[in-house]
Amino acid sequence: TWNTLYPFQTASRYYAAQAPSFIHPFCHPNSLTCSGVQYTTTILADVPPAKRPLTIKPLPIRAKDVYNPQLPINYAFFNGYFATYFSIDAHTGEVSQQEVVPRSDAKSFYINIMAKPSHGTGAEVAFARLTIEVLHPTLSRHDPIVQASALTGFVEESASIGTIVRTGVNRGSTLLQVSVSDEDLQPGMPPATYQYMLNGSATSYFAIDQRGYVYVNALALKVKNGETNAYDLTIRAREVDTTPTRTSEPVTVRIQVIAVDNHSPPSFASKAYYATAYAGLPQQSLIRLKAFVKDSKALAQLRYRIASVSNNGENLFRYNEETNTLLAIAPLDSGSQYRLSLEAIDKFLRKASTTIMVSVVEAAQKPTEAEMVTKTPDSVSKAQKLKSTPSSQFPTSATFNITINEQIEPGTLIMTLMAENSPPDLTQYRFVSGNDDDTFSIDPRNGRMYTAKQLDRERKPIYRLIIQVASSGLTTYAEVIVAVNDMNDNAPVILNESPIKFTVDEVAESDVVGRILATDKDAGKNGKISYALKSPNRFFEVNPTDGTIRRKIPMLDHANASEHRLIVVAKDNGTPSLKTETEVLIEVTDSDSNPDDIVAPIFVGNYTVAVDENAPPMDILQVQARYPDGKRGPISYVLKKGDSSLFSVNRVTGVISTLVSLNAEKQNKYTLIVGTEQNPSADPSAWTHVVVAIQDINDNAPIFQTSSFSTTISELMPPGSSVVQVSAADRDIMAPNNVVSYRLIGDEEAAQFFRVDPASGLITVARSLLGTGIEKFTAIVRRSKGSWNSVKIQRRGRNSLCSNPIHHTTVYEEILPPHFVMTLPMKATGSLWQPVQCSIASGDEEGSFQVKTGSGGLCEIETRRKLDREKVSSYNLEIVASVPQAAGESYSSSTVVHVDVLDQNDNRPTFLFDEGNSIARTYFAIVDEDAPRLTTVLIVKAVDDDLSKNRLITYSLVKADPDSAFFTIDRDTGEVMTLQKLRKLSDKFPPFYLFRVQATDSPTFGAPLTSEANVAMDRLADGRAALLYLDERVHFCRIDLVFVAVNEHSKRVCRTAELQDLFTKESVARLKSLSSDSSFQLIGLHEMIPVASSNFGRRLQTSEIILIVVGCFICSISLLGVAILCYYWKRSKTKRASSEKAMLYGVMPPFTPMLVSPSDKEYETQMLELAVPDEPYSRRFHPMMPREEDIYTIRGIGHVGTYNTRSTSLSHIYIPPPDYMESNKIKPKRSQGLATNNGHFRSQNSIL
C-alpha cells in the first residue's frame, strides 16, 4: 500500500520514458539505469525510536533522473510489513522509525522501495530492497571503552579499607573514578553491566566499587624502604550477558602511596613465632620476620638484636638484618627447645619485641644449606602473603580480589567469571583448589560464583580459590581471593562463674569490690568490650574498660540494705552492638554486730585471672583477707581446694603462683578455693573462689601419621586424578591454632606435576605424565608450622598397567571423613580416557566407603565415616566401573579392593579386676606391717585393644595422692611394693591406705591415653594373719578357712559385728557351688563365736540402757491399752443384753381373734410373732424402707422365697396382697371390722 500521495508535475523539457537510477556503489555513475540494489540498516528491540532518520548503508537512499538530474524524485514503500513501524519521506528518501519494535517481533524487515519521477505517469519507476535488522539489546557490536579521570592516583600509607584514591597529593583533590562508554548504548536503553578485570601489582591492595571509584582494599598498605611505593593497576571492562562478550582495551593507572610521618613505634605482626630447626647442620635459616613501622623511609630505619635465649643458647643464633632472617650458626641437638626474644629498635629508641620458639628435630635426610634457604618460611603479615605469586601447579592468567561480609546469605551471587574469546556454550568452569569445604559454588556454564554455606570469619578469614576454565580443548586458570569481612556476630561471654557474688564491709578500706571478666571472639572493634551498669546505682559503679566494680561512697548501711543486686552489661563496639548481661550480688556485712564474736579474717569477693599456656612458673594473683573489726592480726593463707601440684599460695602474702607450665589442651580452666587457718568456719566469707583461665597459644606443631608415604600411579592418569592423601593433626584446642595447611616444597619436578590441597592434604596430578621419562618423584609436604614429610610417587609405564583382579591399600582408623583411599588404575578402552561411572557392588554393608568419579575421570574411593579397626579390621570392596558406549550400551568391568584398616591409638588401657578381689573398680590388698622393704603386695594388670606399640602399657602411681608416698610400682609389670616397713607408721598414720595407679599406653602417633584405678590397702598387725600352704593331697582332711570381708563404700575391712548379713543360706549355697574342684569340698559356713570371758557379765553401755528403757515403756503402754479395751467391751455387752430383754417382752402388741363369715373369705392370713433382738432401741421407732435384698417374702404355699439377706440378726416380714387381680366391677361385701383389720394389715405392711 502507498503511504504517501505523490503529485504529478509537468516536465520542463522533452522526457523520454526512462526510469530513474539509484545512487549505489554497485552501479556505475554513467549507467542509464540502476535498479534492484540492496540497502541495510539496524534498530534495537524494545528501544524507543530516535528522532533522527535511520542510518542507511552503504549510502543513503537516493535516485536521479539520468537525463535531468535536477528533476525531483518521489519515494514510496511498494510492499512489505512496514506501515506500523516505519515510514519514508516522499521527497528525500529518508526512512524513520515510528514505534517501538517489541522483542516478540525482533526479526528482520524486508521492504521494497519504489523511486518515481515527480512528473511520471507510473511506468517509469525503479525498485530497491531495504533490509532492516532488529537487534536484541544484548547483541554487542562494539567494544566498551574504559576511561579514568586521571592516570595517577595518591593515597596515604595509613589509609583504612574503603578509602578512595585521589587524583592529587592534597586531601582536597578530586577522587579517582573509572567510567565505561559503549557505542552499543543508545538513548533510552537500560544501563549495561560491566565487570572490571584488574591486573598488576595493585590488585592485592586496591579495588573498584560499583560507582567506579578506586578504593583501598587491604590493611597492609605501607611505605617500604628502598622501593618506589607505587602500584600499577591495569583496568579492563568486560561486558556481562552480551553476545558476544567484548572486553575493552586496558588502561593502566599508577597509584602512589604517600608516606605518613606519624612517628609510630615499631611492631611485629605476632607476639610469638614458631620455627623448626634440623639437628646437626652447621648453619641454617630458621624463619624470616621483621617489624613494621608506619613512618616514612627516613624514619623507618630499624635495628634488631636478640635480647635473650633460653637453654644457654646465646652463641647459637644470629639475626641477619639485611635479609630479615633468623639463623642458627652452630649445630643444634635433637630434641632441644629454645625460647628467643627478638627486639626491634627505631631511631627514637622505641622497642618492639616478639618471642620465637625453636624446636630441634632429627631430619630424616639432612638438606643442604642452599635448600634450607629456599625452604625458609615467610612469616610476614597476612596481607603480604596474598601478594605472593600463585602456586606453580596452576599458572593463573588473572587474579581477582573481592571482599564479602560473613553474614551474607547462602546462594548470593558474588561475582561472574567469563573467559575471553571463547564461545559461551563450549566453556566450562569449575573449582580445582581452595573450595574443599564447599563454601562456594560456581555455575559451570556461565561462571557465576555463589556462596553455598554460611561464612564464618572466626573460622576462616580468607579463601584462595583456583578456578579452571576449559573451552575447545584449551585450559586456563584464574585465581579469586575472597576476603571475609568481620561482622559482629558473637556476643561477649562472661568468664566469671555463676552466680557472681561479692562481699563488702560497711566501712571501706578499699573501693574495689570485684571484677567482671568477659571475652569476645570477633576481631577489631567488634571484639573490644566495654562494661556498664544496666541501671545507675548510687552506691556502686563499674569501670568501662576492665570491668572492675568499685564503691562510690566510703560507708554503706547494713541495716537498711544488707545486699545489692546489680546488672552488669558487657557490650562490644560493633554495629549493631551485641551485649551480655549478668547479675552480681553484693552482700554488705555489719561491722558493728557482735564485734567480739567475729575474730577470724574474711575475704571480700572472688577473683578471676587469665594465664597464657606454657608460661613459666610465676605469680599470677594476690588474694587478701582482713579482720572485720579492722584490727591487725595473724593471717595464714591455705589452698583448700585445687591441685597443689600446679598451684601454690604464699602463707604470708596470699600470692598465688603456678608451679609448672599449664597446658590448655589438657585443661583450660581451674577453680581454686583459698582460705585461712584462722577461719575454718563454713561461712562463704571464710574463703574465696579463684578462677584461672588458660589462654591457648599456638604451641603444638602438627604431627604426621607416618614419616613417609609411597604410592604407585600410571602415566595415563589424566590431570586432576587423586594420588594420595596425607594427614596431620594438631593438638591445639582453638582455631586458628589447630588449623593445618599443606604445601609442596623441595623437588621442583614434583611441584610441576603434582599439587597438594592446602586444607585436606590431598595430592593430585597437575599435569599429564606422558612422555616425561621420570620414573619416581619425591615430594616434600610441609605443614603450616614448618615440619615436613616425604611422599614417594612411582610412575608406571603404559604397558605395565594391567587390570589386576585384586588391589591392596591401607587407611588409618579414626580419620575424619571424607578421606581419600585410592584411585583405581584402569586401561582406556580407546585412545583417550573416557569418564566412567563407579559404584560399590558388595563388601561395604555398613556404608563406610563411597566411590566417585574423580576430576580426572577415574574411580576414586574415599571414606564416608570414621573407621574402627577393633570392630572391622579389613574390607573387601567389589568396585564396578562402566563406560557408556554408543546405542545406549555400556562397557563395565569389576575389581576387588582389599582395604586394611591401620591401627591408631584410640583405645584407653583397661584394668583387669578379679571378681573376688575388687569392688567398684578398686583393688584390695592386705599387707603385714612387718613386711620388709620392696615386698610385693599387689599386682595390677591392664590391657589395650590397640596393636603394636600402641598397646604397650607402663604403670605409675598418682603422686597427688598422699598415701602413694609409702609404695612404689614397677612400670613394666605393675607390681605394687612397699618402700619401707609399715610398722614405723603405726603411731602416725591409720592402718589404711588409699591411692591410685595409672596405666598409660605408648602411641607412635598422637598423645598417650591414660586410665586410673583405686587401690585400698589394709595394714595387719600382731601377726594375726597367717598363710596356709597345702601340699599335694595324700589323705582326706578337714580345714577351717577364715574369710575377710571389705566394705564397698569405705573400702575398709569389716568388723565381726558387720558380718551378720553375710551368713545367709544364699551365701553358703553360692560358696558351695564354687567348690567344684574335687580336691576340696566346702562342708559349711559358721560364724566365729568368741570365747566366753572368765568374768560373768559386763557393764552396759549408755545406748543399751536407753534401748531397754524405751522397750519397757512401750510394753507398759501396750498392756494398759489392752486392759482399757477389755473393760469397755464387757460394759457394752452387758448393756446390749439388757436392751434385748426389754424389747422381747414389752413391745409386741396384743392380738384378739376375729370371726369372719365363710362367704367373705378371699384368702387366708397367718399371724407370726418374730423377735428382733439385735436392733438398737433407738432405731425401733424410726423404721426405714427395706431394700429388696434384705427382706423375706411370705407368699402362699409353694411361693415362699428367700431373698439375699446380709443381716443375720434382723429379718423383716413382708405380707403381700392377694395373688389375683382385684376387679373394679365386682366388689365383695365385707364387714366393717374386716375392712378395718385389712386396713390395719396394709398399714403394718407398708411400715415393715
Keywords:
1248 residues, mainly beta, Immunoglobulin-like, 4-stranded mixed β-sheet, elongated, disordered N terminus
- Can you name the CATH architecture of the largest domain? Sandwich
Query: What is the 3D shape?
Result: elongated
- Whole-number count of domains: 8
Query: What share of residues are in beta strands?
Result: 25-35%
Parts with pLDDT < 50 across at least 5 consecutive residues: 1-16, 364-392, 797-802, 1023-1034, 1089-1097, 1177-1214, 1220-1248
Q: How does the helix and strand content classify structurally?
A: mainly beta
Number of discrete helical segments:
6
> Rg from C-alpha positions?
53 Å
Say which CATH homologous superfamily of the largest domain is assigned.
Answer: Cadherins
Question: Mean pLDDT, rounded to whole units?
Answer: 75
CATH fold type of the largest domain:
Immunoglobulin-like
How far apart lie the N and C ends? 127 Å
Total strands: the figure is 76
Percent helix: under 10%
Largest sheet: 4 strands, mixed
